[in-house]
C-alpha cells in the first residue's frame, strides 16, 4: 500500500484552516501564501516524499480538499 | 469497530457529496461530520433510498452538498418531519442533521418523543455548545462560565442551570437502539465517529429502533479560537460531555 | 345507497378515507376528536398510518414530512391548535406541499370555549403565519358537503401543490345528519417533486430558504400566480337571488341558520336572497361584484366580530352597501334574530 | 311536518343516546333529521342536552330555540327548557325526579309525567330511564313508528354491546305502553 | 444631547430600557439578535431580568407569566418566531395582558430569507392567532422613532391592558442612524388586576376560558370596545399633502424610500403627497377617507405581495382609486422604481 | 416524614379552598391532590404570596377552587408562564398544576428546560395515563396495551414506544432539588404525597431549586372502572411508574 | 383525642364515589339513596359510634365532603 | 452635500468596521448619516458589504443603488459593484488583491488603486487593510476631516480593545498619506 499518497484534489475547497498540516505526522503539508477562488490561503504539499499515505489529513480536513490514493 | 472501516484503504471524495465547497467557516467540524455522513451512506449502499432532513442552523444548506433527497424542516422540527416521512414511506432511510439548539432547545419535545416512540430514523446532533448560525448565543449545551453573546459574563448556572446531556437522556428510552457521543478533533476519534454513525444507520435499517449520534464539534468563530485551538478545546468539552457509546443494540 | 347518521367530524374523516388519505397526524382537542378517533380505528385496517403526535407542532411537521414524500396526508385540530401550526403552514406553503388541514373552530380568543365560532376566518384566509402565503380554504355547510369537500381537498392540494384547509366549526363538527357515502375517485397528478429516494436521478430538494438575488421574489411570484390560478376553483351556493334587493351572506354551518331566516323573510314577501361562499380563499369576488353591480345590498352574518365582511367589502369596492351582523361566539343566533335584521335592513333607506 | 325536540338531563342519564336513537329512527323512517349534542368542555358531571329535528323537508338549521317538544330527565333541565317550549308543545318529564307540581307554572303546554327511572328500575335496569322516557315520547308524539326505534337501536349498538338490546327494548316498551295505558290522564295541559 | 450611532434593533432595546422594561424573554433569530444581546448586557445591571428562552413558544409564555404579575415585559423575534407565538398572543389578548412584542420581520414564507420584508402585515394586524383579537401595532420608520415608539408601546400596553406590537423589518433593524436618547417618563396605570400574591384580598384570576352563557360573548365585546377606544391612538406622518392629486402610502422603513421618491416627483412638479400610517392597527381610516373624499387617489407601496392596500381600500370604500405597488421580498426597490410608478399613475386616466 | 404531618389531628376543610364543589368525576384523584395542595399552602403559610398556574386539562378550573392568585397558561406552557412570573417577582411562591399530556407531551420542552434551569418553582404533574379532559386519548404515560380512544387496540410499543418516565428524567437535572412520584390510592400514600408536596414547595422557598411531584392518579371515567377499582388499578401503574422519592435535597 | 369524630360537613359536595366508605376501617360510612343538589347519591354515617376519628375517610375523599373534628 | 458610498469585500476584511467608522466620523462632523450593513444568513465566509450615506440634509433612504463612491477590497466585489458606480464616481480599490487592469472596462469613473493590504502589512498589521483603504477614501473624497475618523475610532473601540487604537490609527494614516503623496497619479479615470 506504499503507493498511496496525499493529493490536493480540490484546492478551491480549501479554507486554509491548517488542521491537515497540524495533524500530519510527517509534516508533509503546510498552508501556503497562495489564495484560491474563495480568497482563502491554500494548503500545499511541502514534503511529498515523506507522505506515508496514512490518510490522517483526509480524516481531519473539514472541507474534503485532500484525497489519498 | 468493524473490520471494514479499519482496513488500510485509499481515501476519496465520497460520491454522495456534490462538488460544491462547504460554506462553513475555516476549521468548522460540520465539514468533517458531513464527510463521514456521506461515507456511511455510500458504504451502506442506501444513497438511492436516503431521505435527509435539513434543519435550521449553520447546516441548513445540507442540500447543497448531499446528492440525496432532502427536505428542509422548520427550526427544531426535524425529528417530526423525519417521523412523517418514515411513517409515510418506511422503505426510506431517513436521517436528520441538527444543531444543539435545534435538537435540544426549541426541538426538544420533537426529538425526545421521536426517540421515545422508537422511530426508525437516524438523528445526528452537532453539539458545538452555541447557536452558530445566529452569532454565538447560549445553547442548552453551553458550558458553565462559557461566554456567549447572550451570556456576556459567562453561563451562570444560577440563571441557566447546567448543560443538558442529551445522549444520556436518550439512552434511557427503550425505543433507542443506538446512542453515542463522538468527537472528530483527533484522527482516531474520526474513525470511531464514523463507526458510530454506521451503527446509528443500521439501527433503522435493521429495524431495531432510533439511532442517535451526537458530535462534539468545534465552532472556531464563535469560540473565538483558531481552528487548531478550537479542535483542542473539544477535549475540554468532553469532560462535561463524555465521549462514549451509551447504548448499542446493533 | 343507504345513508348513515354521522357527525360532521366523522364525515370529514370518512371523506379523507374515501380520497385515499394514507397518513393522519394529529393531537387531541375538542371539538374534533371524532376525526382522529375514527381514523385511529380505520386507517390501520387499510394499511394507512394513524399517529397521535405529541403536540400540534409535531403533527403539522409530521404532515410536512409525509407530504414531502408524495403521499396523501392530513391533520386536524381546532383553533388554539391551529395557531400553533402557523409556522409549519408557512413552510408547507413555501415548500409547495400538498396537504389537508382541518380546523373545526371553537370560540376564542385564548382558550375561549368549545362552541361554534367563525373567529378564525382571518387566520384561515389571510395567512396565520408569516409571509405572503395562503391556504385554499373550503367551508362546508352540511355533513354531506363536509364529506365531499374533504375528499375534493386532497385533489386540489395535489393539483396546486398547496395546503388546503377545511374550515368548519363545532356546530357542523358535532351535529349528526344523514350521509351518503358516495364513492370518490381520487384524481392523479404528477409527483415529480416528491422525495421518494433518489434512485436513478439526482437528489431532490424541498426548501424555502432563498438567499440568491431575486430568488425569494421568484418564489413569491410563483405562489401569487398559483393563487390567481386557484380562482377557477371558486364555489358558492346561491339561493333565491332572483329579484333579491338584499343578499344575506354567511359561510359554513351558520349559513344554514341564515338560510332559514331567508326562507322566513321570503315567506313574508321580503325580496331577500342568499349567497354562501364555499371557497373562502380564493374569495368569490366576482359573484359578489356581479350582484353589487346590479344594485343588490348585502348583509353579512358571521359567528365572530366581523371578518368575512371585509372580503365582501373588498369585492364590491364601495358600489353598494354592506352591513355586518356579527355574533361573537357564545350561543348561536336563531333564524328569527337574523330575520329581524333582514327586515331592518330592508326598511332602512339605502345609503 | 317538522318535529323539534330537546332532550335534557344529567350527564350519565343517557340523554345523547336517546337523542341519537330518535334521529336514527327518524332517518330509517325516511325523514330528514339532524341531531345536535351540546357537550361540556369536559366529560364530567353537569347537565347535558341535545336537539333532534325530524322533518319531511330539508332542514336548514339544526339549532332550535323554541322546541315543539321536550324530554326532561332532571330538575335543572326542567327549569332551563320548559320556558322555551312553544305554546301547545309537549313535555315528557321524568316524574321519578321531578314532581308534577312544577308544571303548574306553565299553562298551555302539554305535560306528560312518566316515572321513567322507576319504570326502568322495575324492569331491573335502573340506568335506562332514558329509554322509558323515549318510549313515552314516541308514543305521545307519534313522530316515528316504534319499530323504527327498535331497528335503530340494533344499528346503534356496537357488536360488543349487542346484549344491551333486550334491556333497552324492554324499558322502551314500558315507557311506550305507559302512555298507551294512561293516554287520557297522562297528558296534563 | 449628543447623538449616538446605533442600529434600529439597538434603539428598540434602548427604548425598552428607557420605558422601564423589567423583563425580557426571547430566542435568537436573525435579524434582531442585537435586541437580546444588548439587553443581556444592560438589564441585569439595572436589576432587571434577561432570560434566553428555549424557544419562541417558551419566550412568549414567559412573557405571559411575567406580564400577569404587572411588571413591564417584552419579547422580540422575527417572522417564523412570531408565527410560533400566535397561540400565546391570542391568550395574552384574551387575558388582557399588557406586553410588548417586537417583530423585526424578514422575508417569507417559510424560512424565506433575512432581507427586509413587510409580509407579516396581515399577521400583525388581522391577528395571527385564533379568535377575534388584535395587537395595537406600531411601525417606526427611523431609528429615533423606533426608540420612542418602543417606549410608548409600554405605556399603551398598560393603558389598554393589551399586547402591543412593534412591527419593523430587517432594514430598520440593521441600519444605523444617530439616536438622541431622550429621557422617557413612563406613565403609571392602575394594576388592580395584577397577580402579586393575594395578601389582604381574595385570590385573583386571569383566565380566558368562558363557558357560562354569554360569558365569551361579553369578553369579546369588551375587547372590541377596547379596539374602538384605541382609535384615538392613531398616528400618521403626512408630507406634501397640500395640492396632492396622488398620495403615496407606505409604512415602516420602506416609507423612507417612498418619501425620497415623492421628493423626486415633487421636484419634477408632480402633484404627489405622502401618508405613512404609524399605527397599523388601529388603521388610520379617517385620514385616508378624508383625502379620498377630497378626490385624492392612492398608490400603496409595500415590501410584500399587497397587504396594507386592503386596509386602504376598506378605509376609503371605493370612493377613489387605490393602486397597489407590491415588492415581494428580495432586494429593496430604489426610489427611482417608485418614482416611475408615480409618473405612470399620474399619467393614466382616473378610473 | 416530618413530625408535624404525622401527629394525630383534626381534619378540616382547608381554608385555602373555596367553597365550591369540584367539577371532577366521582372518584377522580384530582380532588385529593387539590386538597393536599391546599393543605400544604396553608401549612407553609404562603397563601398570601402564592401564584398558581392553571394548565389545560381536567384541572383547568383550578382557579374556581383555590383562593390564591391564579393565571391560566396555554396547553403545555405552564412551566414557561411560571418561569416568567417567578423571574418577574421572585418573592412569589409559584406552582403549576398539570396533567401528563400537558406536562410531558405538548409541554415537554417547557417542563424540562424549566427543570434544567433550576427554576424556583414547584411543578405538580397528575399522571392519569390518559388525556382526561378530551375524552381519554393516548398520553405519553399510557401503559403498553392500554386501550384509549386513539389506541383502540391498546398502546402498541412498536407504534408509540414505551411510557415516558418523567420523574426519572427530571431527577437527572442538577437544577432539580426535589423530585418524587406519589400516589393517593391508599391512606398512607396520601400522607406521603402530602409530605412530598411540602418538600417540593420547600425546594423553592429555601431557594434550592425546582420542585416536582408526580401523582399517579385514577381516572375512573376514562379507565371505565368504578372509583374503587380505579383506585386499585393505581397499584398496577406503580409497577411501571415506581412510587419513590427520586431526589431530596431539602 | 377520642372526641374526634367524622362529620359530613359538605354533603352537597359529595359524589357518592364510595371511597370513604371503602377505606373506613370501621365501616361507619355508606353511600345512601338520597341525592344532593348535584344529583349524586350522598354518603351517610351509619355507625357514628364506631367512628374512631382516624381521619382515613377525610384523606381518601376526593371531594372534601368530610371533616373529622 | 450628499455622499453615498458602498464598502465591499470578503467577510473578515473589516468592511463593516470601516463603514461604521465612516458613519461615526460623519456624525461627529455634524452630518446626517446612515449605515446599512448587508449580512449573510450566517456569520461565515462569503462576501460582505455595507452602505454609508453622509448628508447635510435628512436622509430619506439608506439604500443606494447607484453610489457616488466605492471602497472595494476584493475581486468579486469589484465585479459586483463597479458597474453600479455613477459616472464620475470614485472607486477606492485594494490593489493588493485587484490588478489595475480591471479598471479599463469602466471608463468615466475615478479609480484610486491603493495597495491596502500591503500598506497594512508594512505597518505590521496585516489584518488592517480596511483602515488603509478607508484612509485613502477619506483623503480622496474629503468627505470628513481625518481627525473625526480618529475620534470616531476612539468611540467605537470597546474598553477591552482600546489597545487596537494605535495600530488602526497608524494604518489609516498610511492610507491617507498614500493619497496625499500620489494624488496626481493615483486616481485613474
Ligand atoms: C423558529 C425559528 N427560531 C429561530 C430561528 C433562528 N435560528 C436559526 S439557526 C438557530 C440556532 C442554531 O444553533 P444550532 O441549532 O446549535 O446549530 P448551529 O448553527 O450551531 O450548527 C436559530 C435560533 C429560526 N430560523 N427559526
Ligand atoms: C393547544 C391545545 N391543544 C390541545 C388542547 C386540547 N386539550 C385540552 S386538555 C388536553 C389534554 C389533557 O390531558 P392531561 O394534560 O393529561 O390532563 P388530564 O385532563 O388528564 O388531567 C388537551 C389535548 C388545547 N386545549 N390546546
Ligand atoms: S496521508 Fe498522512 S502523511 Fe501523507 S500528508 Fe496526509 S497526514 Fe501526512
Ligand atoms: S484541513 Fe482541509 S481546508 Fe484545512 S488547510 Fe488542510 S486542506 Fe485546507
Ligand atoms: S459559526 Fe461555528 S458552527 Fe457555524 S460554520 Fe462557523 S464555525 Fe461552523
Ligand atoms: S375525566 Fe378522568 S381525570 Fe378528568 S375529571 Fe374525570 S376522572 Fe378525573
Ligand atoms: S374517621 Fe376513620 S373511623 Fe371515622 S368514619 Fe372516617 S375512616 Fe371511619
Ligand atoms: S369519598 Fe367523598 S365524595 Fe366519595 S362518597 Fe365519600 S364523602 Fe362522598
Ligand atoms: Mg450549535
Ligand atoms: Mg392526563
UniProtKB/TrEMBL annotation, chains B, F:
InterPro entries recorded: 2-oxoacid:Fd_oxidoreductase (IPR051457), THDP-binding (IPR029061), TPP_enzyme_TPP-bd (IPR011766)
GO molecular function: 2-oxoglutarate synthase activity; thiamine pyrophosphate binding
Gene Ontology annotations of biological process type: cellular respiration; small molecule metabolic process
Entry EC no(s): 1.2.7.3
Segments forming domain Thiamine pyrophosphate enzyme TPP-binding: 73-210
Pfam families: TPP_enzyme_C
Region entry Disordered, spans: 137-156
Protein name per Swiss-Prot or TrEMBL: 2-oxoglutarate oxidoreductase, beta subunit
Lineage, opening ranks: Bacteria, Pseudomonadati, Thermodesulfobacteriota, Thermodesulfobacteria, Thermodesulfobacteriales
UniProtKB/TrEMBL annotation, chains C, E:
The keyword Oxidoreductase appears for this protein: yes
Keyword Oxidoreductase among record annotations: yes
Domain named Pyruvate flavodoxin/ferredoxin oxidoreductase pyrimidine binding: residues: 15-185
Keywords: Oxidoreductase
Leader peptide range in chain numbering: none
Molecular functions (GO terms): 2-oxoglutarate synthase activity
Annotated Pfam families: PFOR_II, POR_N
E.C. number(s) listed in UniProt: 1.2.7.3
CDD domains linked: TPP_PYR_PFOR_IOR-alpha_like
Domain named Pyruvate:ferredoxin oxidoreductase core: residues: 244-319
Uppermost EC category: oxidoreductase
Entries under PANTHER family matching the protein: SUBUNIT OF PYRUVATE:FLAVODOXIN OXIDOREDUCTASE, SUBUNIT OF PYRUVATE:FLAVODOXIN OXIDOREDUCTASE-RELATED
Protein name: 2-oxoglutarate oxidoreductase, alpha subunit
Organism of provenance: Thermosulfurimonas dismutans
Phylogenetic placement of the source organism: Bacteria, Pseudomonadati, Thermodesulfobacteriota, Thermodesulfobacteria, Thermodesulfobacteriales
Automatic annotation (TrEMBL), chains D, H:
Source organism, top-level taxon: Bacteria
GO molecular function annotation: 2-oxoglutarate synthase activity
Keywords: Oxidoreductase
Residues covered by the Pyruvate/ketoisovalerate oxidoreductase catalytic domain: 11-177
Pfam families cross-referenced by the UniProt entry: POR (PF01558)
EC category: oxidoreductase
EC number assigned by the record: 1.2.7.3
InterPro entries named among the record's database cross-references: 2-oxoglutarate_synth_KorC, Pyrv/ketoisovalerate_OxRed_cat, Pyrv_flavodox_OxRed_cen
Keyword flag Transport: no
Protein name in UniProt: 2-oxoglutarate oxidoreductase, gamma subunit
Lineage summary: Bacteria, Pseudomonadati, Thermodesulfobacteriota, Thermodesulfobacteria, Thermodesulfobacteriales
